[in-house]
Structures are given as C-alpha cells and as structure tokens.
Amino acid sequence: MPVQLTRRRLVEGVLAGAFVSRRRPVGAQSATLAFSYPSGLPGRVLGDGFLVRHGYATENTWYLPGYWHAGEDWYTAAGDAAGTGVYAAGAGEVVFAGSNYPGRVVIVRHAPELFSMYGHLDYALSVAEGDVVERGQLLGTILARTDGRAPSHLHFEMRTFFTTPEVNGEAPRYGFACGFGCPPGPGYWPIDAPEHPSAMGWRNPTHVINRRAWPGGAMAGVDVVVSTTAQGDAPLWDDPGDDAGAAPIADVPLRAGDRYPLLAVEVGAEEGDGTSAEAYRVWYRIVLPEGAEGWVQAAVPSMNDAGSDGRASSVRFDFVPAVAAPTP
C-alpha cells in the first residue's frame, strides 16, 4: 500500500505541475512536450507514416456500421503495423494492463479525469499495472492480427473515465463487446443513442494531444515535419483556413521530412460533437525559409474510409511535431 500511494502522489505531483504550467503567460517559452502521438516507425517522428483510418466519433462502416467509433484506429499507411512501437501519450500511471481485445490493453491515468487507452497490443507488454511512465515511454508493440477481423493496428482512446456505469461499469447501457465492469470499454457507441460519445466522457485524441502538448502554449525551439503521407502542396493561410475571412497567401510544397519552426497551434475542442473526420481541427502557424508566416492544416480529412452517409472517416497528418519515435 505505501508503494502504491507513493506512485500515485508522484504522478499527481507531475501532472499538477504540468497543469499549473499550462496557465503560464505565453511569453514563458518552453519546447518540452507534455503529450505526443502514441505510435511511430523507427527512424521517423511520432505519427509519421500513419493513417487514422477510423477517427473519433466517425462510423466504421466495414467493421461495425451503425456505431460511432470511440477512439482512433492507427494504421501504417504502407505495410503492416504489427510490431510497431506504442508509446505513452503523456506521463502517468498504468492503471490497467491485460484483457484480450484481441491483444492486450494498457490504460494510463494522466490526471484524475484523463485516461489514455491503447488496444490490440502484443501479449508481451513493456509495462505492468502500477508502473509510473513518462511521455513517450514504450508500452508495448502492435499485435500481429491473425483473427481475420482487421489488419494490425492500434486502437487509441482518450477519455475522462477508467470505468463509468453506463459505458463499462456496473450498468452498461449497451452490451457490445465489453460488458460488466470491463475497463477497456466497448470502443464504440450506437449512432441511434441519444448521446454523442463526448457526452459519455470520450474525447478526440488528436485534439487532446495537440491542445495539451506544449504547456503554456509556448513554441520556442519547436519544429514540425512534413509527413510521408502528405501529397502535393498545402495552402498557407493568413488565418486558420476554416476561419471566416481566411485567405490563402502562398503554397507550401509538401516534401517529406522538411521542417518548419512552429509559432502557434489552433485546435478544436477535446469534447467536440462532430461525427465525421471533417470535425478534426488542427492548424499550425509556421515560418517558411524566406521568413513568411502563416497557417497550415496538420490533420486533414481523408476519404480512405467513409461513413454510410458518405462523409470522411479517415484522417491523415500532413504535418507532425518533430518528436522522434524511440526504438522498441
């Protein structure tokens, strides 16, 4: 018991410091990341080479039509994702490591009401319940799927609960997949339910990471990298391109590996109520080599997969923070 309490106090102390730092003036500069993407390929930055085939609160029509996805499915854009490293999105305590999802599930508690969940991991995990982890620490690797239900991928959630009665606690409203007192949870929510997944405590993972990545919003010394999944050119806008009155001012050639200094970030709400990939909103203000500044869209809706209503379900990343993926 004393060891568990010590771990909990340590985690809460780290997290409390992070949340205090988020209230610092923007002028207090720091390049230290508090959150980052959950997977990466060797020799690349986290998130590079991945496609979120089924985004948060989108419909996965080929696997479970009629349900909103409660998280994000991270696939490699080329080849099989099996064996790819999975990393803690932020510092915290491992509060669950087990199940058969298929594959293992790890849940990390970052704050009293913020948990990340990593599903479809290989059975040989790198952490155990009670471990205190740092952001970017290896949790395990993506399971090689042999069940024929889906290609190898990471199911990734951010949510406000470990268990909650109506989703995965003592009184689940829907019996899909998980059941009574099951910490991993169902991973889906019925489209015809009166509540959006956000109302039940799930959050848009990409929004959470980008909103909380840099304490205080400070960007000194931070770069973003053009992803290998990016194609063609990206417009550079005077304001985020989805703002009223925003206008394009230049084109940015999307050459994989090019780096740009990051000045600011505009991100949608963590608890957004959109129901397609079009609800993703991540904009980076960057500096071009000749000194011009402007906004580029980092998370771009993709028609790689679509819901039954024809709207995009997938998300690609044209720009990702320059955070190297550790070696598994």
What does this structure look like?
There is one protein chain. The protein has three helices and 22 strands. It has helices at 2-21, 165-168, 205-212; strands at 39-40, 50-54, 67-69, 72-76, 85-87, 92-98, 104-111, 114-121, 132-133, 138-141, 154-159, 188-190, 202-203, 223-226, 233-237, 248-253, 259-267, 282-287, 293-297, 299-306, 312-317, 319-321. With 328 residues, it is mainly β. The strands form five sheets. Strands 2, 4, 6, 7, 8, 9, 11, 13, 20 and 21 form a ten-stranded antiparallel β-sheet that branches. It has a five-stranded antiparallel β-sheet with strand order 19-18-17-14-22. Strands 1-5-10 form a three-stranded antiparallel β-sheet, with no helix packed on it.
Topology:
Blueprint: H1 2-21, E1 39-40, E2 50-54, E3 67-69, E4 72-76, E5 85-87, E6 92-98, E7 104-111, E8 114-121, E9 132-133, E10 138-141, E11 154-159, H2 165-168, E12 188-190, E13 202-203, H3 205-212, E14 223-226, E15 233-237, E16 248-253, E17 259-267, E18 282-287, E19 293-297, E20 299-306, E21 312-317, E22 319-321
Antiparallel strand pairs: 1-5, 2-4, 2-21, 3-12, 4-11, 5-10, 6-7, 6-9, 7-8, 8-11, 11-13, 14-17, 14-22, 15-16, 17-18, 18-19, 20-21
